[in-house]
Specification:
The complex is a heterodimer. Chain A has helices at residues 2-19, 29-44, 49-60, 62-65, 67-70, 77-82, 84-116. Chain A contains seven helices and no strands. Chain A is extended. In chain A, 40% of the residues are buried. Chain B is mostly helical. In chain B, helix 2 crosses helix 3 (47-61). The chains are: A mainly alpha, B mainly alpha. Chains A and B meet through helix 1, helix 2, helix 3, helix 4 and helix 5 of A and helix 2, helix 3, helix 4, helix 5 and helix 6 of B.
Chain lengths: 117, 241
C-alpha cells in the first residue's frame, strides 16, 4: 500500500532533478519536486491514501533525517566558539523581531482588509 | 572450520560498515523522542538537538571522523529530499485555511521573511561574525530540510544552516507566547501564523500543542515560507554578496 505513494514521491523528486538541469531560477531540487506535486494535487483536488500514508511516515521522522548533516557541527565547533556572542544575539534578536514584525503586519493588513468590506 | 574472531576484528568490521552510523543515529533520535515525550513536549528538550549531541559525543569518543560517520548515515540523509517533496501534502491541506485571508497572510509572510533575514544577518554582521556564520543566517527561519537545500544552492554551509534553523525553532517556540502577549495579539490564527513564519516546524508543533487553529496557521506559514524562501533567499543573498 505504501509502495505506490513512495513511487509518486520519487517520481516528482526525479522530475524536480530533471527540471533543475534547465537554466531556471536556482531553486533547491527537492523544492521543485514539492511545487510540482503541490500543483498536481491542486489539479486532482484529492490526496490518494497511499501518498498520504508515505507523507505521514516521512514527516513523522523528519527530524531524524537532518541529524546526519547536523552532526557535521563537530567540524565547526572552534568557529562557533569564536562567534558565540554574535550567534546568540543574532538568533534571539532575529526570532523575536520576526515574530513581532509578522504579527503586527498581519494585524495591520487584516484591519485594512476588514475596513474595505 | 571458522576461525573465531577477536573482539578487535569485529570492531574493525563494524566500524567500517554503514551499520554503526545508521544504528547510532536511530538510537540517538529514539532517545531524543523519548525524552521529548517524557517532558510533555517541552521545546527545550528537542529530539534533533539531543540526537545531534549524542551522536557527536559518541563519534568523538570512538574517534570516528565525521566523514566516515556521514558515509554510513547518508542513507538517512538521502531521504531528506523525498521528505521535502512530501511536504507538498501538508501544504496542500493547509491552503484551504488561506480562504479570504490571502492578502494579510501573504503580506505578513513577506514582511516576516524580510525581517528574519535583515535582523539575523544585520545583528551578526554588526557584532563581527565570520562570513560563513553570517551566510547561515539567511535561511534559518525556513524549515530545516528546505533551508539546507537553499544553503547548498547558495554555497553556504548546510550544516550551520541546519543548526541555526533548529536553534531558531526552539527559541521561537519558547519566546513566541511572550512576544505575542506583549503585542496583545488575540485571535488564534494571528498568533499561529507568525510562529510558523519565524520558527517553522518546531514552532508549529508548539503552536499545535496550545491550539489547533494556531497550529494549522503556523504550519501553513512554514510551508509558504519554504516555497517563497527558496525563490527569494538566493536572490537576496546574491544581491549582498
Amino acid at each position: 500500500m505504501m509502495l505506490s505513494g513512495l513511487i509518486q514521491i520519487l517520481f516528482f523528486q526525479s522530475l524536480g532533478e530533471l527540471i533543475s538541469k534547465l537554466p531556471l531560477p536556482s531553486l533547491p531540487r527537492p523544492v521543485i519536486g514539492l511545487v510540482l506535486l503541490l500543483c498536481w494535487l491542486m489539479i486532482k483536488k484529492e490526496i490518494n491514501p497511499s501518498l498520504a500514508l508515505v507523507s505521514e511516515a516521512l514527516s513523522q521522522y523528519l527530524g531524524l533525517l537532518f541529524v546526519p548533516a547536523a552532526v557535521g557541527v563537530v567540524l565547526f565547533l572552534p568557529q562557533l566558539k569564536d562567534n558565540v556572542f554574535p550567534i546568540i544575539c543574532g538568533l534571539i534578536g532575529s526570532v523575536v523581531l520576526t515574530i513581532g514584525g509578522s504579527a503586527l503586519a498581519l494585524k495591520l493588513f487584516n484591519q485594512g482588509e476588514a475596513s474595505n468590506d | 572450520m571458522i576461525k573465531p574472531h577477536s573482539i578487535v576484528e569485529i570492531w574493525v568490521y563494524l566500524s567500517g560498515s554503514p551499520l554503526i552510523a545508521l544504528f547510532i543515529s536511530l538510537v540517538a533520535y529514539q532517545i531524543g523522542l523519548w525524552a521529548y515525550q517524557k517532558t510533555k513536549h517541552n521545546p527545550l528538550v528537542n529530539p534533533v538537538a539531543i540526537a545531534v549531541i549524542l551522536v557527536a559525543t559518541f563519534i568523538e569518543l570512538i574517534d570516528m571522523p565525521y566523514d566516515k560517520y556521514f558515509q554510513g548515515a547518508q542513507f538517512i540523509h538521502f531521504l531528506l529530499g523525498s521528505a521535502t517533496v512530501a511536504l507538498a501534502i501538508p501544504i496542500y491541506r493547509g491552503i484551504g485555511s488561506l480562504k479570504n485571508r490571502v492578502i494579510p497572510l501573504m503580506g505578513a509572510l513577506f514582511i516576516g521573511g524580510a525581517i528574519s533575514i535583515a535582523s539575523g544577518v544585520g545583528i551578526s554582521t554588526l557584532l563581527g561574525a565570520d562570513k560563513s556564520i553570517i551566510g547561515a543566517f539567511y535561511s534559518k527561519s525556513v524549515t530545516a530540510p528546505i533551508a539546507m537545500g537553499i544553503a547548498e544552492r547558495m554555497g553556504t554551509s548546510p550544516t550551520l544552516t541546519a543548526i541555526f534553523a533548529v536553534c531558531t525553532g526552539i527559541l521561537g517556540a519558547i519566546l513566541a507566547p511572550y512576544v505575542l502577549n506583549l503585542l496583545r495579539i488575540k485571535p488564534w490564527w494571528q498568533r499561529g501564523f507568525p510562529i510558523g513564519v519565524a520558527s517553522h516546524g518546531i514552532g508549529a508543533s508548539r503552536a499545535f500543542s496550545i491550539n489547533a487553529e494556531a497550529g494549522t496557521y503556523a504550519s501553513l506559514a512554514m510551508g509558504l515560507h519554504g516555497i517563497t524562501g527558496s525563490i527569494a533567499i538566493p536572490l537576496i543573498y546574491k544581491l549582498f554578496n
